[in-house]
Write a structure and sequence with these properties.
The complex is a heterodimer. Chain A is built from no helices and 12 strands. By secondary structure, chain A is mainly β. Chain B is an all-beta fold. Chain B is built from no helices and 10 strands. In chain B, strands 2, 4, 5, 8, 9 and 10 form a 6-stranded mixed beta sheet that branches. In chain B, β4 and β5 form a beta hairpin. Classes of the chains: A mainly beta, B mainly beta. At the A-B interface, β5, β6, β10 and β11 of A face β4, β5, β8 and β9 of B.
Chain lengths: 116, 116
Amino acid sequence: AQKVTQAQTEISVVEKEDVTLDCVYETRDTTYYLFWYKQPPSGELVFLIRRNSFDEQNEISGRYSWNFQKSTSSFNFTITASQVVDSAVYFCALSDTYFGNEKLTFGTGTRLTIIP
Amino acid sequence: GAGVSQSPSNKVTEKGKDVELRCDPISGHTALYWYRQSLGQGLEFLIYFQGNSAPDKSGLPSDRFSAERTGGSVSTLTIQRTQQEDSAVYLCASSLGEGGRKETQYFGPGTRLLVL
């Protein structure tokens, strides 16, 4: 069975600090997809990134970066120079691999608070 | 372009009543998902539609829950004889439905259901 663990329930950092959100996953499949979504106070889930299991290259998008390590089954998310607008709940998710239903298995989320 | 829309935004109902929640996916997306977000259970998959195929109902928690999708577009999630434990945010997502690398799910704003 698939499982996603986000051990950090809540994190608070002062604005401009860097922060890393951890995500550990479990799957028996060799082909899978990992995602991060952001859920701001408005409630809508905003897609941030999708990564497939064959691509272990780290990715950077502005202040956001992702570190995918298959050896430790982790897909961590780092925000550099954090801003108040980064305050949200962040979810890591794993997709089922059988074609036709890529339902997402979500972690429990990490609530990030950026203190001005 | 327009994203996924859901209605109503909020719904308050009395225990035992039936409710209908509506989802309008992104135009051109053939795959549609329903998820539920509750305090005790986190984000959990409910049901999946892909084109004209039979839906994957494996996530529905009980036979009080049903969903349909008319004309391959709009979907309605129906909860019969609502219970207090049905109180949650119901999220709809859609994706292109072509499988593989293109399958990122985009979420609507959700319907917040409160059963009194």
